[in-house]
């Protein structure tokens, strides 16, 4: 039934719609989580205090006052207290930043010096890789660890830490647990080495060349090798970086051998192509005089990138990650690390 116009009940007055400009300026809080209701925003983004803390520490790492060990310590402090609010974002960024930083360091190195250093470190490399893998096999069996965990930790100790584990793991078809345990083990030892190696080197009065060679052999990851050597001196940095990257090339034959040993067919080998970029940068710095003025700038940026990389690595080592490993993988890692460190140091000191 249709009511006459006079009998239709009056409707409450409605406010006129806001003009388009007012709608654009008004903050939209309808879709925010409850804990962000009423929070002030910056360019439509409401940063949490954890994100602010991360940003402040990151900015400090870009300053001349932040050395690689300091940056790593700040990252660890963040991870163990408030936590890393950008863990998922920096996980993929960290290896790329490290690779570009290593390439940048090549613009401060001389190819003739690098070849000499690489030749001297070749014998140490071959002997230490074979010995570490063999020792890891027997210690791992004694500890009752799975063969994948044993092999990954041994490869990480023998060659170049996380990069070797990331390359060899898929070849073995290792599961996520084995990969995580192995990576966490070598990362913890990297942290210890970065802080302890420079004081030990000074206490033993190691030369720049001796310390650089020792770092390249006894410290797992390239980032910690470069960080410790940079804290010791420029010559140590050149020797350590060159020998470590030459050592990293052993990822290729070790990966091939791993595929044969574990009877894995059709697996792709992950080649560290950034080493070619480092060699190219070193050749440009040595043989292209026009590039000389650019070298110090690129090296400076590379050192900043390395510092930020170590901050990211420290921020990724949360207490949960450290506790999830258990004691036996740490025992294996420590035993291998002590044997390699002490053995290589003895040979270096005897060689003079």
Automatic annotation (TrEMBL):
What is the protein's given name? Sulfate exporter family transporter
Q: Where is the composition biased (Polar residues)?
A: 28-38
Q: Which family does it belong to?
A: Belongs to the UPF0324 family.
Q: Which residues cross the membrane?
A: 52-77, 97-115, 121-140, 149-172, 178-199, 211-233, 245-262, 271-291, 297-318, 330-349
Q: Where in the cell is it found?
A: Cell membrane
User: Where does this chain mainly localize?
Assistant: membrane
Q: Which UniProt keywords apply?
A: Cell membrane, Membrane, Transmembrane, Transmembrane helix
- Composition bias of kind Pro residues appears in 7-20
């Amino acid at each position: 039934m249709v009511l006459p116009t006079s009998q239709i009940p009056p409707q409450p007055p409605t406010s006129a719609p806001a003009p388009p400009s007012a709608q654009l300026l008004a903050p939209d809080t309808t879709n925010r989580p409850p804990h962000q209701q009423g929070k002030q925003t910056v360019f439509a983004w409401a940063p949490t205090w954890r994100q602010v803390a991360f940003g402040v520490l990151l900015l400090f790492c870009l300053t001349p006052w932040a050395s690689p060990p300091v940056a790593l310590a700040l990252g660890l402090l963040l991870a163990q207290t408030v936590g890393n609010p950008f863990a998922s974002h920096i996980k993929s960024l960290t290896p790329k930043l490290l690779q570009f930083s290593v390439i940048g360091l090549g613009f401060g190195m001389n190819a003739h010096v690098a070849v000499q250093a690489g030749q001297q470190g070749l014998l140490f490399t071959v002997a230490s890789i074979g010995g570490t893998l063999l020792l890891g096999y027997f210690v791992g069996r004694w500890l009752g660890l799975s063969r994948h965990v044993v092999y990954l930790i041994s490869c990480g100790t023998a060659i170049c830490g996380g990069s070797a584990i990331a390359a060899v793991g898929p070849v073995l078809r290792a599961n996520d647990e084995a990969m995580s345990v192995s990576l966490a083990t070598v990362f913890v030892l990297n942290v210890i080495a970065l802080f302890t190696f420079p004081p030990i080197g000074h206490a033993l009065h190691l030369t720049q060349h001796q310390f650089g060679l020792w770092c390249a052999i006894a410290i797992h990851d390239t980032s910690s090798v470069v960080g410790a050597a940079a804290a010791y001196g420029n010559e140590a940095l050149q020797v350590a970086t060159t020998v470590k990257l030459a050592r990293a090339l052993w990822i290729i034959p070790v990966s091939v051998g791993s595929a044969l040993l574990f009877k894995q067919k059709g697996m792709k080998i992950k080649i560290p192509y950034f080493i070619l970029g480092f060699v190219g940068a070193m050749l440009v710095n040595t043989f292209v005089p026009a590039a000389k003025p650019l070298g110090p700038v690129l090296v400076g940026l590379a050192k900043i990138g390395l510092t930020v990389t170590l901050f990211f690595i420290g921020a990724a080592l949360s207490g949960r990650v450290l506790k999830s490993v258990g004691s036996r993988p740490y025992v294996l890692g420590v035993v291998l690390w002590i044997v390699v460190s002490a053995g290589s140091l003895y040979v270096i000191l005897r060689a003079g």
